[in-house]
Design goal:
Largest sheet: 5 strands, mixed
Order of helices and strands: HEEEEHEH
Number of helices: 3
Shape: globular
Number of strands: 5
Radius of gyration: 15 Å
Structural class: alpha+beta
Length: about 120
Amino acid sequence: MAITKKIKKYQAILLEILEQEKADYTGTKYQELEDQIIADLERNHFQLVRVGWADDTRLLDIKLQFDIKPDGKIWLQENQTDVAIDDELLKRGVPATDIVLGMQPPAYRQFTEFAVG
């Protein structure tokens, strides 16, 4: 698969995952909190963030963050959900060789089933 076509496919998969996770997080007890999807399709950065107020505390939390690198690999940079996002990527057809657990220290990545970088 050509790299541009692969990146477009992966962009769509990541947006689907972010939409699903956003839907799962709605209904918080704090009315002033909002979940937002931030997607830079030119530079291939994707986030699900929670922003707003919980009582007197300002919150800005990154729930999920992905990057698609120029070689077409998806880097999972942050996962503050209870969902195994790596498994979700596999279920959606992304091979383990195209997934990098960027939140893991580089020395430990070799011990996973996924790409090291």
